[in-house]
Amino acid sequence: xxxxxxxxxxxxxxxxxxxxxxxxxxxxxxxxxxxxxxxxxxxxxxxxxxxxxxxxxxxxxxxxxxxxxxxxxxxxxxxxxxxxxxxxxxxxxxxxxxxxxxxxxxxxxxxxxxxxxxxxxxxxxxxxxxxxxxxxxxxxxxxxxxxxxxxxxxxxxxxxxxxxxxxxxxxxxxxxxxxxxxxxxxxxxxxxxxxxxxxxxxxxxxxxxxxxxxxxxxxxxxxxxxxxxxxxxxxxxxxxxxxxxxxxxxxxxxxxxxxxxxxxxxxxxxxxxxxxxxxxxxxxxxxxxxxxxxxxxxxxxxxxxxxxxxxxxxxxxxxxxxxxxxxxxxxxxxxxxxxxxxx
Length: 343
Description:
Radius of gyration: 19 Å
Protein name: Di-copper centre-containing protein
Strand order of the largest sheet: 1-10
Keywords: Metal-binding, Signal
Shape: globular
Largest sheet: 2 strands, parallel
Signal peptide: 1-17
Mean pLDDT: 70
Strand content: 5-15%
Pfam families: Tyrosinase (PF00264)
GO molecular function, one term: metal ion binding
Structural class: alpha+beta
């Protein structure tokens, strides 16, 4: 599909928590055309915004000569994939900036990003700063719509080659369902066991050591991966791009309403490969959500003020000094100057 933000519009039923409808080929074709049109509209809006013809919210600092296009992983040339992998490995070779008093287990610069996310988990999820905060953790993006159609096991991201992010974890045999929640007064959500579960044995990150997650204390382990295709194919809220008019509605459809039995694309994506923020995939997955967020922002300009725009976002030891949410709402405003495309 052309820039398939999240597979089929026919999956609105999944968003609303009603029985899942499995789209036919005709449904997929119609959804692809609609999503392609939406994506093109958002792209065109970006260009006009940068030119200064739509609003005047700081876009003057971003012009067409500076505008960068962030592309879907599968459409990157092999040289760019290798460069990205090398950059991640570089972060894993540098010492951490986070003091031991804040995260005893942080050993590398890569761990700074993991520790910051762990430390702020309760204040950056299901909150008004969710999307703007995570925008600092993205670069390329992942077309989850394509993965939902082909399955995790067929994704080039997991083929174990030198341009992948390593393969699935070694198969650990039949395992019981994974139970999410159930201790907070909400009904438990039962997630099917994945096809892996053991250590990754191929690809650039097969020897990666995970120092953190889920806690801030040292938890040394090799990279493991679950690979749960059932999760990544059943939770696909594409319709959130066009029907959401508030940040609250938009984020709830993406993350899943607590107690509804629907994970949403954000949670399903993380749990689809283990749910660990120390995973090498962590910075690629949120970019899929932020691709949709960027499209939603551009299609609903000006942005709805359903949170305090003058609140500050703190990036801990991972990035720059705190910034106001107001400065992080658009991909061509504030410190940003980029858009998304599939090729």
